[in-house]
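Need a sequence for this fold. Nothing fancy.
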């Protein structure tokens, strides 16, 4: 998969969420459609899974969500299929302006979200829970997320903060079309929470495409490549070997290039604590929070 394709997929996944608008009829919705994987995970985690009738094309967790009807995603929502499910609430991205307008014209309530950072995940959990009639459960989950993220932060206090490049896409077998986390958003916040220093923190964007020359200039001490599907041992070895074409990189010299296939690193929902622990365990091997 090309770096650009990974970038588009990340756009569908890597959204920490904050409420920017909603149409909120007083009754609890019983037929909810979620076009956001993170929101889908929240709905199931707070006990609202039985209210969900449709999910996005990218939803895989929890397993119960994968059994729901697919209705497209960020770039290709299936309006006719959405209407066929007779929803009384559709959760959408703020960027889906055409879909929002069409739903409003036919009187379907929407709950609209925009991108934000890790700190907004708990706020979103609480707000969504209130909207779907699960305020108590969502408040509990939000507190747990905040408490556990703070536990990760405490576990890395006083440790050196190495420069980290978090890569979520490049052309296989080469260092072309590399996409990295820049200094804004969910992935950046995860690196910082886990005790790293984002090597591209000064670039105030969620992501950016970088060259080998730019990577050499930033000199990361840890490189973490994230992937959504597992590679076998031989494929992993081949892709790690690609980095040896840049022996001047500190991460290469210190043998600190990691390949991680785990969707928890892409979805800013209830499993963000797992994601922070995974990164903390990589950046600081043996850290207690990674257990």
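Here you go.
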């Amino acid at each position: 998969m090309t770096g650009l394709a990974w970038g588009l997929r990340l756009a569908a996944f890597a959204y920490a969420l904050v409420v920017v608008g909603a149409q909120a009829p007083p009754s609890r919705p019983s037929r909810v459609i979620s076009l956001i994987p993170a929101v889908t995970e929240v709905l199931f985690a707070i006990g609202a899974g039985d209210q969900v009738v449709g999910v996005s094309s990218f939803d895989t967790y929890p397993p119960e969500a994968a059994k729901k009807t697919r209705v497209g995603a960020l770039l290709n929502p299936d309006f006719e299929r959405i209407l066929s499910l007779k929803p009384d609430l559709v959760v959408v991205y703020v960027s889906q302006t055409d879909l929002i307008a069409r739903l409003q014209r036919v009187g379907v309530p929407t709950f609209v979200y925009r991108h934000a950072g890790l700190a907004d995940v708990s706020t979103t959990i609480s707000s969504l829970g209130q909207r779907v009639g699960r305020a108590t459960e969502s408040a509990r989950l939000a507190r747990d997320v905040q408490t556990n993220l703070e536990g990760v932060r405490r576990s890395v206090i006083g440790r050196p903060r190495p420069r980290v490049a978090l890569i979520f896409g490049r052309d296989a077998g080469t260092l072309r079309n590399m996409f990295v986390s820049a200094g804004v958003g969910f992935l950046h916040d995860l690196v910082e929470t886990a005790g790293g220093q984002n090597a591209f923190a000064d670039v105030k964007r969620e992501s950016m495409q970088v060259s080998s020359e730019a990577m050499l200039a930033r000199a990361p001490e840890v490189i973490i490549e994230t992937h959504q599907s597992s590679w076998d041992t031989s494929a992993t070895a081949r892709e790690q070997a690609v980095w040896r074409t840049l022996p001047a990189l500190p991460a290469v010299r210190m043998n600190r290039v990691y390949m991680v296939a785990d969707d928890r690193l892409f979805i800013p929902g209830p499993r963000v604590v797992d994601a922070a622990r995974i990164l903390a365990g990589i950046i600081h091997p043996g850290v207690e929070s990674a257990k």
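For context: Confidence is low (pLDDT under 50) at residues 3-26.
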